[in-house]
Amino acid sequence: MHIILIILIFTLILIGAISYYIHIDMSIFVIAILIAISNAVLYMNYRLKKEVKEKFQAKERLKALNETLELRINHELKRREEQDKVLEQQAKMAAMGEMMDAVAHQWKQPLNAITLYESLLKSDFQDGIVDQEYINNFLDNTTMQINHMVNTLDEFRKFFRDNQNIEKVNIKRCIESLQRLIKDDFLKNHITIDVNVDNDIEVNIKENELKHLILNIVNNSKDAFNENDIKKRIIKITSTHIDKNQILIEFEDNAGGIPESIIDDIFKPNVTTKSADKGTGIGLYMSMQIANKNHGDLRVRNSEDGAIFSLLLPLA
Ligand SMILES: Nc1ncnc2c1ncn2[C@@H]1O[C@H](COP(=O)(O)OP(=O)(O)OP(=O)(O)O)[C@@H](O)[C@H]1O
Ligand SMILES: [Mg+2]
């Protein structure tokens, strides 16, 4: 704008000076002024058009950028979703492997017992001591062992059944059901699980997801007990009412604690201190996902002789 005014004033002065010196007619002077003004207006018009065009182009560029940005964000979100699904699947497979181990332990003892009863039956028959009472006893004992195996298998199937719905789950009963699956494995590893949880705590969650979360925590304790060669092994599970809407479940072990070098990253994927055949580092990541998905939280701290995991969940 300033340049235009300067040009206009300069043109006027120039024309004025020329007409003064060469004494031309006043009408020519007026025409010259008009030409100068119209030039200035044309120039202004040109500048204005140029500015509008530039603004339009900038707007178009911004629009195109926004569109590709949206595309890029969608692409990234989809990629992460797929990554999470793969991790979830991996975690499930790992849990399945661990559970198969647990089931194998649970089955070993009753299978041994049944084999023993069978071999005794043959020799007792030859000794002539197999009567009605013997048969009844034999049936009671074998049925008990077979029931134990069937119960374990039922728990196992329940654990991996998909499409479970979110429902009111009683925390104590859920822990007891999980304990039925891992009892023999933990017994073999000399681990006592001391459960001090109120009878009536209920949360809205998919039951097998909660079991999965708890299994990840207690299995980590089991590994730490073995790695650190701890003699007296105890996992304490306790419940505390935070307020009328929230419950805190704490899992405390005396397995030596989490290494300080990883404690801040422990809930990130692929953080592990174990060899590839022992751990992938997604157990606690998945546990945190499950807690968050259910509007809860999972935290960790070390105590004097072990680790404490705190699971916060909204009450049903
Ligand atoms: N109770 C615990 N005591 C000591 N260290 C622990 C405990 N719980 C977890 N950790 C440490 O945290 C790491 C991460 O645990 P996380 O469960 O996520 O993975 P992982 O057990 O290594 O492998 P995964 O669970 O996938 O088989 C473990 O490797 C271990 O070093
Ligand atoms: Mg683990």
Automatic annotation (TrEMBL):
Coiled coil: 48-79
UniProt signal peptide: none
Gene Ontology molecular-function annotations: ATP binding; phosphorelay sensor kinase activity
Matches recorded under InterPro entries: HATPase_C_sf, HATPase_dom, His_kinase_dom, HisK_dim/P_dom, HisK_dim/P_sf, Sig_transdc_His_kin-like_C
Ranges where the Histidine kinase domain occurs: 102-316
Gene3D superfamilies: 1.10.287.130, Histidine kinase-like ATPase, C-terminal domain
Transmembrane segments: 5-22, 28-46
UniProt keyword Nuclease, yes or no: no
Keywords carried by this UniProt record: ATP-binding, Coiled coil, Kinase, Membrane, Nucleotide-binding, Phosphoprotein, Transferase, Transmembrane, Transmembrane helix, Two-component regulatory system
Entry protein name: TWO-COMPONENT HYBRID PROTEIN
Organism annotation: hydrothermal vent metagenome
